[in-house]
Write a structure and sequence with these properties.
Layout (H helix, E strand, L loop, with lengths): L6 H6 L5 H4 L14 E3 L4 E6 L5 E6 L2 E6 L5 E6 L8 E6 L3 E17 L1 H4 L8 H6 L3 E8 L16 E4 L9 H14 L3 E7 L11 H5 L5 H8 L6 H24 L11 H8 L4 H7 L9 E5 L7 H4 L2 H16 L5 E4 L11 H10 L6 E4 L15 H16 L11 E8 L2 E7 L5 E2 L7 E4 L5 E3 L1 E5 L2 E5 L8 E4 L9 E2 L9 E2 L3
Parallel strand pairs: 1-7, 7-10, 7-11, 8-10, 11-12, 12-13
Antiparallel strand pairs: 2-5, 3-4, 3-6, 6-7, 8-9, 14-15, 15-20, 16-22, 17-18, 17-21, 19-20, 21-23
Helix pairs in contact: 5-14, 12-13
C-alpha cells in the first residue's frame, strides 16, 4: 500500500508548519503500483517530505539520495533504466514507500477531448478485443483530476494492467496506438490518458502562454466581448429541469414506459471542461516532468466553430511548444486529424488545415482519418485504425522501424501549367485511386467560385483541370466537412484534405 499526503489533509492543515504538513515522504499519484518508467533516459522522481529530510530512492540496483527543500519538495533523476522483469521502487525518508510491479519500457501521453477519452468498450468489436487483451506488459494511467485555476502539484489516478477485465475502460485511440508499439517494438508500454470530452484546446494550454502569443490576441479580445456565463441561472434552470425529469421518470416507471433522458448539470459540465488553461493546470501540470517518449493528441471538434477554427493554426503549435518547454525536451508529438463528419454549422476543413500546417513543427506527425469517420456520429468507432495510423508514424520515425508508410500523401508544392494545376505529393509511393476516377478535387480562377475538377495521377503528382476554368489559380481537395475521397498511397493511407490558397 502506497502512503500519500492527501490533498484534503494538506488544505486542512495549511496553516501548520511545513515540517508538520509533510511529516512523511510522499509521491505524486503517477508513482504507484504497476507503473511504467521510460527506458534509456534519466528518469525524474519527485515528491514531498519534511524540509531538510534526506530522501532515498532505490530501483534496479541503483540508489539516489536528495534532501527536501525548505518548502518540503524534493526531486532527483535516476540513471537510465533498461527493460526487464517487473521490479520494485523504494522511496524512503523517515517512512518508506514500496511501489510494486514496476516495468521499464516506452511511455506515451494521450490527451484531447472525447475521441481520446472514448473507451475500448465503445469501439468496434469490443468482444473480440477483450479476447486479445491479455497483455500484462501494457499499462494505462488515467489522470482523474479536474480543472484548476492554478497549476496543480498533485493529481489523481492509478495504473491498471491490461486484461480482459480492464481494457474496456482504456482510451481506445491510446490503447490501439500503444498495442502496435508494444507488438512491434517488443517492450512494455505505459499509456497516460489525460482527456476530457467536449473541451476546447485553449483549456489545455497554459493561460499565460496563450495571452503572450500575439497571434491569439484577437481570440482573447473576442472572448472579452462575450457575456460571462451566469452560473446561478444555469443552476436554477437545471434544478427546475431535474424536478420535471423526476416527476416524468416516476410516471413513466409506473406506466412501464421508457424513462426520459435525465438532464445534464451545466454547472458541473462547466467546471469539468475548465476555462482558459484550466485543464492544463489540473490534468497536465501534475504529470510534469514524468518521463515520456512522446504524446498523441485527438481534439479539434470543440474548436470547429467559425469564430474559433481560424485560431487553431496558432493554438496547436503553441500547445506542443509549451508542453515541450515545461517537460524540458522536444519529445515527439502527433495528432489525429479530424475525420469526415456532417458537422452542420461547423468548419472542420479549417481545423484540418491547421493540423496540416502544424507539421512544420519539428518531430511531429499526423494520422489522416478522412476516410474512417461517421457522417452521423462525431465519435466514429473505428479507433483501431486511428491508433494504427498514429503508430505507423511513431514506428517509422521515432523507432526507425521499417513500415509501409508513416503518413498518407501530403501536398508538397504545386505548379500552374496553363489550364492545369499540378500538385506534387510526398509519402506518395504507389499513389492511386481506391476506386474509379479521383473525386473531391475542385479548382478556381478567382479564389471564391469553385468548380468540380478532373484529376489524374501522374507518378507522385496529380494533374487537376476543369472545362469551366481556363486560367486556374488554386486547387483544393476534400474541402467539406464530410467529403467523398479516394486518393491513397500504396500503403492504403488516405491523402490529407488541403488547399493551395489558404
Amino acid at each position: 500500500m502506497i502512503r500519500r499526503t492527501h490533498l484534503g489533509l494538506v488544505l486542512a492543515f495549511s496553516m501548520l508548519p511545513l515540517s508538520l504538513v509533510y511529516a512523511d515522504v510522499s509521491l505524486p499519484a503517477i508513482f504507484s503500483d504497476h507503473m511504467v518508467l521510460q527506458q534509456d533516459t534519466k528518469v525524474p522522481v519527485w515528491g514531498w517530505a519534511e524540509p531538510g529530510e534526506e530522501v532515498r530512492v532505490e530501483i534496479g540496483g541503483q540508489t539516489k539520495t536528495v534532501n527536501a527543500g525548505e518548502d518540503g519538495s524534493w526531486s532527483l533523476k535516476l540513471d537510465s533504466l533498461k527493460p526487464g522483469k517487473p521490479t520494485t521502487m523504494k522511496v524512503a525518508g523517515k517512512n518508506e514507500i514500496t511501489i510494486n510491479d514496476v516495468l521499464v519500457g516506452e511511455v506515451w501521453l494521450g490527451s484531447g477531448q472525447s475521441n481520446m477519452a472514448m473507451t475500448v468498450n465503445r469501439a468496434n468489436d469490443f468482444a473480440g478485443e477483450q479476447k486479445k487483451a491479455d497483455l500484462p506488459s501494457i499499462r494505462m494511467f488515467k489522470e482523474t483530476s479536474g480543472s484548476s485555476p492554478t497549476p496543480a502539484k498533485e493529481g489523481n489516478g492509478g495504473w491498471q494492467v491490461c486484461s480482459a477485465d480492464t481494457v474496456g475502460g482504456f482510451s481506445a485511440t491510446l490503447f490501439f496506438f500503444g498495442r502496435e508499439i508494444h507488438s512491434e517494438a517488443d517492450v512494455p508500454v505505459g499509456l497516460i490518458n489525460s482527456s476530457v470530452g467536449g473541451t476546447p484546446i485553449e483549456a489545455w494550454i497554459d493561460a499565460d502562454a496563450q495571452r503572450a502569443n500575439k497571434d491569439l490576441q484577437p481570440f482573447f479580445a473576442a472572448s472579452q466581448g462575450r457575456k460571462p456565463v451566469d452560473l446561478e441561472t444555469l443552476k436554477a434552470n437545471y434544478e427546475r429541469a431535474l424536478e420535471r425529469y423526476q416527476a416524468a421518470a416516476k410516471k413513466a416507471k409506473a406506466e412501464g414506459k421508457p424513462l426520459p433522458r435525465k438532464p445534464r448539470d451545466p454547472v458541473a459540465a462547466q467546471s469539468r471542461k475548465g476555462n482558459v488553461g484550466g485543464l492544463f493546470n489540473g490534468k497536465i501540470a501534475p504529470l510534469i516532468p514524468y518521463a515520456i517518449r512522446g504524446a498523441i493528441w485527438y481534439q479539434g471538434e470543440a474548436n470547429s466553430t467559425p469564430e474559433k477554427a481560424k485560431y487553431y493554426q496558432y493554438q496547436l503549435p503553441l500547445l506542443i511548444q509549451d508542453w515541450r518547454k515545461r517537460w524540458g525536451y522536444d519529445f515527439p508529438f502527433a495528432w489525429a486529424q479530424l475525420p469526415n463528419y456532417s458537422g452542420n454549422g461547423r468548419d472542420w476543413p479549417t481545423v484540418r488545415e491547421a493540423m496540416l500546417k502544424t507539421l512544420s513543427v519539428p518531430k511531429t506527425g499526423m494520422g489522416i482519418n478522412i476516410d474512417i469517420g461517421d457522417t452521423k456520429d462525431i465519435h466514429p468507432k473505428n479507433k483501431q485504425e486511428v491508433g494504427r495510423r498514429l503508430a505507423l508514424w511513431a514506428l517509422g520515425t521515432v523507432y526507425e522501424a521499417e513500415v509501409a508508410a508513416v503518413s498518407g500523401p501530403l501536398p508538397d508544392g504545386h505548379e500552374i501549367q496553363g489550364d492545369k494545376i499540378v500538385v506534387r505529393f510526398k509519402h506518395a509511393e504507389g499513389l492511386e485511386s481506391s476506386g474509379g476516377p479521383l473525386v473531391g478535387f475542385e479548382i478556381t480562377a478567382d479564389g471564391e467560385t469553385w468548380h468540380p475538377a478532373v484529376a489524374e495521377i501522374d507518378g507522385d503528382r496529380v494533374v487537376v483541370s476543369s472545362k469551366m476554368v481556363d486560367q486556374p489559380t488554386a486547387v483544393r481537395y476534400a474541402w467539406t466537412n464530410d467529403p467523398k475521397t479516394n486518393l491513397f498511397n500504396g500503403a492504403g493511407l488516405p491523402a490529407t484534405p488541403f488547399r493551395t490558397n489558404p
